Amino acid sequence: MKKTAISLALMTISGLANALSGQVTDAAGNPISGAAVEVTGTLLQTRTDEQGRFSLDTASGAANELHINAPGYSHQTLRLENADAAPLVITLRRSAIEQIDVTATPLHTSTMESAQPVTVLAGDSLRRKQAATLGETLKNEVGVHSTYFGPVASSPVIRGLSGPRVLITQNSLDVSDASRVGPDHVVATEALTAEQIEILRGPATLFYGSGAIGGVVNVVDDRVPASSDSKGAFQFGHSTVNSEEDASFAYTGGGEQFAFHVDGFTRKGDNYEIPGAAELESEHEHEADEHEAHEEHEAHSVGILENSASDSKGFNIGGSVLLDNGFIGLAYGRLERVNGIPGHSHAHGDEHGDEEHGEEHAESEMHEHEEEAEVLSDLKQDRWQLISELSLDNNLLSGVNTRIGYTDYEHVEIENNQTGTLFQNETVQARVDLLLQEFAGWRGAVSIEGKTSDFAAVGEEAFTSPSRTDTLAIALMQEKHMGDLLWQLGARVEKVSIEADPIPWEAHEHEHEGEHEGEEHEHEEAALLVFDELNFTPYSVSAGVVWDFAADYNAGVSLTHAQRAPSASELFSYGPHIGTGSFEVGALFDLHVTDEPHFDYGNAVEEEVSNNLDLSLRKHSGDIGWVVNLFYNQVGNFFYERDIGFTSEDFESHAHEEHDHDEHAHEEGEEHEHAHDHGALPVYVFEQADSVLYGMEAQMAWQFSEPFTLTLWGDSIRGKLKDGGNLPRIPPVRLGGQLAYAHNGWEAAFGASHYFEQDKVADLETATDGYTLVDAELGYTFASNFGDMTVFLKGHNLTDEEARVHASFLKDRAPLPGRSFSLGMRGTF
């Protein structure tokens, strides 16, 4: 922050090379060591020594603005104008609320210096919150919830939005997995080896494109090192709720001209313990035999969430050439993960069982086989990244940042050791940020980006056609300090093209002919439905201002008009999505409700249009710090999945003659091992409708004595359709608090979060009861010959509360884990 609580004497910058020097102190005049001092808009930066002193080699006109930050202090931004020849003396004020710089944007910003709300997890705070999935790691951040597809797959939900609206990136490049297609797919990135995780709440389309209309989660690690400063870290631990063992390490080092990095992790856990039964009793189970079968199946899952074990491992290795004006580096990463899919079971048995054994026997056999079914997801990802950051000294550009990524992702769903559906995603992405020289006080960047994604799902549960998405974009971002105001402006335009492979399709008008013309017509090969190539040109514009209206306070206002091209799965889906227990139909298909309901291809779709307003009020210095955000997001042509009240059996003869090959094989005497009978799945159709989402986010930190800090937080989200009704799976109101103690190496914390009942539900959606989760942790840090070491003990859900996540497709089949304790050690060297 730019504030007047600074005692300084500014120096002139002559036409010759000069050393810009000074000292950073606290309010009492004590030196602050390790403070970061950087010339804004360049790669020129340094850290203060033990006496708080710093020195930067700079040239004429190169240093127009400095940014200074240190852990536990409020940031400072200084304009170097009307200078005289004396060293700088800079005073930083303490802050009870954590402030961290953001790397996710080409412009400099921090959690307190952005018109748009930003959250950053880093350092010990990140280490304490790390979990097996990204969604569970971030679920207690204000404005962020989790899809929670059991403990094995969980993605962030930002202000009620998830899926293709929330972009997940790793070092600002798309993670390129299948997690944006369905909540049952794992996010292919790892928090254990991350340096920090950045959350941009609200539209971030200017920086990342239309896929970020709801927000961005950027996982930052050091796989492409920017310096050769030697640093290392490790962690290992054990969790009781699933007997999970985890371990990770990271090291960066090198010399004057070369830096290298290596990291790795492993995590393995059994099925999770849960309070009570996994599945809520269905209100529609009226018949005694069905109820008895349900109780028999339920008995096997009381206290355990079946099929929730996981085993994952990965590593990254990279190196950089260090230049006088920056670095150029390359990294390779490998991620492997095998996990169960909770709530994912098939009914196995002879498809002619009704004829041979009678309906009652077939039903009991089905339940028996459901209990034996084990469905696994086997994920592998190879990822290459080339990253460079170079400062320049010419009349137009101050620097060029380049990021190029190639990702080869696949995961296979395996049932009883047999391969089912294969999901693949191959992505090539290149992004260049041209950092512009300051002109008339305006500083910014031009961003040029291209991305190609080939996505395919092949197998019996392939609910969407293989598709290719090409994107080309250009964006301009600018900011300017004008007195106590920081203006931030931006615009972006994209060209998005989507094409998909044809799918088998039997036109509705021919369905009755088969009934009259005989059995042979039922086995004729279905015609192919050829999809048209779709092209979109979404654009975004944004204006924001941060106003330092008083000492220690600022206010932010951000207005964004953003458009989003729909994803391939929202358009082309037509089939059973067993992970979510639904039959999904894309927006290109038009529903006709007749005596025999059916879908026709050819529905028109448009870009999603968001008009978003963010208001923020912040107190960033002193013993009390707080942030309050209000947001209002009006979305036209909003894509959402609507439960239309039909089941897949109502449409099963219309497309996807899945079992023809099994029937022919049976007739020819071939071995018929099993057939998948998905049963009557509810049909969810992607539709477009005008909607509105609004809410509030608040957090406060009060350091009422030297060792004690009280933190309170809460958020609320309301999602409605403009024509009436509620959006599905909108998270409930929640409140949380934590009392933390830190003194002489000891750290302790006790906290609770309460989730209120969510009864503002969509049609055919059930309400979710409220619950309270109680957590605690204790740690001790000590010095050793290897560096600082911390031994920790954590307890989660100490009251063993049954808790179900309303935003989850599995809320009635997979509660949150029960009481858990984790013991471990972490260290830095």
Automatic annotation (TrEMBL):
Superkingdom: Bacteria
Signal peptide: 1-19
Main subcellular location: membrane
Domain TonB-dependent receptor-like beta-barrel: 378-798
Biased composition regions of type Basic and acidic residues, renumbered to the chain: 347-370
Residue ranges constituting the TonB-dependent receptor plug domain according to the UniProt record: 111-216
Region (Disordered): 281-300, 341-375, 656-676
Membrane topology: Multi-pass membrane protein
Family: Belongs to the TonB-dependent receptor family.
Protein name as annotated: TonB-dependent receptor
Species of provenance: Microbulbifer elongatus
